[in-house]
Amino acid sequence: MKLDLPPHCQILLNGLTNPACLTRYCDSDWELLIRMARRVKLLGRLGLLVKEYGTWDQVPPRVSTQLTSGLVQVEKLQQLNRWELNRVLWALNDFDTSIIALKGIAYSLAAIPHASGRLSVDLDLLVHQSDLADIESLLVVKGWKHRPLSAYDEHYYRVWSHEIPPLVHAERETEVDIHHTLIPLTNRVKIDPKLLFDAAIPVKNSTIRLLSPVDMVIHCAVNLFQNNELANDLRDLLDLHDLMVFFSERTPDFWTWLIDRSNQLKLSKTVFYGLYFSQLIFNTPVPGKALVRLHARPGRLKLWIMHRLVPLALFPQHPDKPMLSASLARLLMYLRSHLIRMPLYILLPHLIYKSLRKIRFKSRKSRS
Amino acid sequence: MVVNQIPFEEFHMLLHRQGLRVAIGPFNVCIHTSYKPLIEQLYLLYSHYRITQDEIAEFHVRIVTERSLRNPFKRNIRFLLDGQSPFESFPQEQALAVLEWGINLAIAVRVNHLLLLHSAVVEKNGHVILFPAWPGSGKTTLCTVLSYQGFRLFSDEFGLMDTQQQLFLPIPRLMPLKNESIAVIRNYLPDIVMGRPIPNTQKGTVAHVRPPEKSILLSKHTCKARWIIFPKWIADTPVKIEAISDSEAFMMLASNAFNYEALGATGFCAVADLIRSCDCFKLVYSDFDSVMEVLHQLTNET
Q1: Which residue in A31, A130, B281, B294 has the most C-beta neighbors within 10 A?
Q2: How far is CA A351 from CA A227, A309, A347, in A?
Q3: Do the Cβ atoms of B113 and A38 come within 8 Å?
């Protein structure tokens, strides 16, 4: 099946995958590209690509100023992330445990190409479930706080989620998300974090560790196709593409290991979607036999539906002319993400609670 | 082409259909709305802005009307930036104030290629004076008076600084007077064009002053700063201007900027160089005549 994208999505995709074509972009293409890239957190990435490709001087001035602004923002957030990690490690210095960095900060530490253009807002860490309570209280003693939460949200995090309520230090703004596993506990799919810790890799001159390359890729796919709602998540699919290109070039057996690990962790269906859409959208060089070796794959009908819906959800809407089909795709993906995340007896009350709160919140806002 | 060179119907059409693009300082803003009362106000208050339909716009904003959730018979307005709504809806009467706040917010959160100081900025004799101050210190009111009394308006809100060239960029926007200032300015400057007062906004009653035509016309002319003056209006006090130390000025300026921290070392060096090249003062005043005297004295000394 081929990728069939609306024209505005094509403008974004071409800009991200083929910087050479940007020299042919007219003003209105550029304007749309910037607006959409910003919407999916890829403005900094785009700026980095233009810089690397050496065509910065050919970009219209009103575009290069916006790319600069995007790059400054990305740089600042990454600096805040690094500093927050430094502070967390300092706060936990005397506590004997192992901590794994996840997502944006991990991609920087692993020196994944283009990681310096990634917009990373929160600091994500994985710790042992058994150390979780100690780590949380140590951080709270040293100045981190939870944001005020409703009793329901507290319950949601503590009982069903794969992370505790976010922590923010009193003097800073970066949110620290501490995970004890990679998939919500209510999900039918389970993962044994011990396997991840056993395979984790140390980082030079630091006590922090990283997931092994294959686990990092699997986590990225899990996050997209198990945990997220996919709307505007194009950046995360691009992360996945970057990771696979980087690791497969450095490790000859990367694909074999990736498939074996996915089968071992019983995440082959999720990984299948990751490989499939990364290849479909970004032309990731996934070997054909890799997909076939995955133990669980979606059926033909299911894949056909996902093939239609996922790109429409991942790409941003046209900022002036939102498409009904894309809104529908997003709604369906939202429902899908919830259906796989929770059993119905939790899901239905959860959705009702969320909608009621939204209405109450809106009316309170309009009253004030 | 300037807004007042096109007929109202065409202006209306632009806002309603493809969006009206106007140059506001270094930025182009594309505005969409079909809300007639807002269009009428904009036709008057935006009349000197240059229309830039064929250029890239950095900001795409919309004012849309929607039914109020609590009272289905009432309509509210909502501000959208690239189709996203950064704040709640407001009563229709506040459309202009919400549009202006929305554009300010968009500039404040997105622009990082310039240093954004929180300051009123005017120019005299080719030199810029910065009036950095916190909300409520009367900087908009002072700025309005100065910009209609021989000073060129750069901004009542944003000190836009090109950090490489140490230059300030004008961004003359509508000046929102608040509460008592409205009557004060009406009396002091009876001839200026001001929008209808909008009561019950988040900041009380607000009325927008149209920037002087000349300031908008010259808004590509950048200048270096020469003076930094921290103003404070205190009722019934005689005017007093006193020099302050560089370090004090640095802390006040840096801690009251929009993106000083985001710019990191660039921001630090820019503010340090700026302070070094400027004379810094604290100003207390209660009436405009004496302030004008002090400022004319200061600017003509050189």
Answers
A1: A31
A2: 16, 22, 6
A3: no
Q: Domain check: are B130 and B145 in the same one? A: yes
For residues B166 and B91, state if they share a domain.
no
By Cβ distance, the residue of A31, A60, A319 closest to B83 is: A319
pLDDT: which is higher, A361 or A247: A247
The Cα–Cα gap between A142 and A168 comes to 11
Check pLDDT > 90 for residue A345: no
For the cut 60, the answer to whether the pLDDT of residue A368 exceeds it is no
Cα A281 from Cα A20, distance rounded (Å): 18
Chain B residues lying within 8 Å of A76, measured CB to CB: 261-264
| Chain A residues whose beta carbon lies within 8 Å of the beta carbon of residue B84 | 39
pLDDT at A363: 57
Tell me which chain B residue has its CA closest to the CA of residue A69: B112
Closest-CA distance of chain B to residue A320, Å: 7
Shared-domain flag, residues B202 and B123: yes
Put simply, whether A251 touches B (Cβ < 8 Å) is no
Q: Hey, what amino acid is at B16?
A: H
pLDDT of residue A364: 56
| Tokens (6 digits) for A114 | 């283009």
**Statement to judge: residues B131 and B275 lie in one domain:** yes
Query: Which range marks the domain in which residue B90 is found?
Result: 3-110
User: Does residue B189 sit in the same domain as residue B202?
Assistant: yes
pLDDT surpassing 80 at residue A150: yes
* A362 confidence band (pLDDT: 50, 70, 90): low
Q: For A157, list phi and psi in degrees, rounded to 5.
A: -65, -50
Domain match, B165 and B216 both: yes
Contact A205/B at CB under 8 A: no
Contact A366 B68 (CB under 8 A): yes
| CA atoms within a 13 Å half-sphere pointing along the CA-CB vector of A176 | 30
Kindly report the nearest CA distance between residue A362 and chain B, in angstroms.
8
Q: What is the pLDDT of residue B302?
A: 60
What average pLDDT does chain A have?
93
pLDDT of A67: 98
Choose the final residue of a domain: B110, B142, B176.
B110
- Kindly state whether residues B16 and B146 are assigned to the same domain: no
Largest pairwise CA distance in chain A? 62
* In contact, B98 and B79? CB cutoff 8 Å: yes
Residue in chain B lying closest to A64 (CA): B113
Minimal CA separation from B113 to chain A, in Å: 5
- Residue-level pLDDT at A110: 96
Would you say residue A366 has pLDDT above 80? no
Q: Which of A73, A76, A319 sits opposite B82 (nearest CB)?
A: A319
pLDDT band with cut points at 50, 70 and 90 for residue A307: very high
In the predicted model, residues of chain B with pLDDT beneath 50 are none
